[in-house]
# Entry
Amino acid sequence: MNQTSTFAQTPALMPLICIDRIEETADAATFAFRTHDAKPVDYKPGQFVIFQVDVADEQLHRAYSLSSTPSRPEHVAITIKRVPGGRVSNHLLDHLKPGHMLRAMPPAGEFNLIDRPSTGKLVLLSAGSGITPCISIARWLLDTTPQADIQFVYSARSPADVIMAAELARLHDAHDNFKLIRIVDQDPVEGDIQGPLDAALFERLIPDLQGRTIFTCGPAGYMQAIESFASARDFDMKYFHKESFVPATANAASADDAISYELQAPQFGKSARIDSSQSLLQVLESAALPVIGACRAGVCGSCKCRVVSGEVSSRSTATLSEADIAAGYVLACSTQARSDLVIEI
Ligand SMILES: Cc1cc2nc3c(=O)[nH]c(=O)nc-3n(C[C@H](O)[C@H](O)[C@H](O)COP(=O)(O)OP(=O)(O)OC[C@H]3O[C@@H](n4cnc5c(N)ncnc54)[C@H](O)[C@@H]3O)c2cc1C
Ligand code: FES
# Structure
């Protein structure tokens, strides 16, 4: 991690200086940053930034949602939860402190209150580190829209695992239009609801679901459950929005029945074997080709590349326009080969 004094500006990356660190739980902390020239960061509530982090001798990229609100532009904040064995989350939680500088790409992401269809009544459902975009959306609405109606449903293993516990309680006490519902799986304290969140509990907690907008972020199984509870109640899914933090690992073909193809990158004079269970990103990285895989989940767009010839299967085209898709662009993290390929980065 660089100290501010040793920073040399990298084009297209914005230097962010850490100005505060707050321990949230035993395995999560919030970090506040300011820009090096104190100019505000332009972002929408719910968006993320991609940090470039040097770990050992490797340059890694990871996405972190901004938990701060654009309505308070004096700083931006992220909240990181430790992933067991994870390279960047452990590195940042172990080393990042005020005075350090990180480089970040400009904020991005479609999971935000401005671009997604939304009603003034929200239900924000999150679990674990998934609280970050939801709290940003809530904070922004509370600052800008007095008539907003927010149900904030947060799930954690136990009260000790509740991220931003004090801030959630403060918002609940300070705003009549912010209702906090804390669900814990074990050791509930006064005011907590014993989880897990099932269809009956969901219905009991949010009887007035119709007319609300759902934003949800958490583990895949959690969001799948919310989606199925909502659709079972004939919810208008145009107002259902979810964000995944976890790399897409579910492969269409298992490693056992994978078929091997050739991938060529003539631009760099390189070719490599790719099997149908691998993502393009895995193979491009192994071949040391210059691709950035920041989210590995098909949401950030950093791994966009073009299939010049060949057949592929893609799980996500989230950040691609229709023109991009027509021109052969894919997200390498979410795309697998179905024939020999020629690609361009
Ligand atoms: C749009 C977006 C926003 C994000 N916002 C946040 C945020 O606000 N706060 C936050 O803490 N994280 C957030 N993440 C996750 C973050 O980008 C990293 O994936 C996470 O910190 C793990 O990185 P790592 O280098 O420590 O783990 P890695 O070394 O990349 O992975 C180690 C192992 O953990 C698995 N893994 C990776 N990420 C996760 C995860 N999130 N949960 C469970 N298993 C995982 C990997 O598949 C791998 O097996 C976000 C991700 C995306 C795509
Ligand atoms: S790495 Fe983010 S979309 Fe592929």
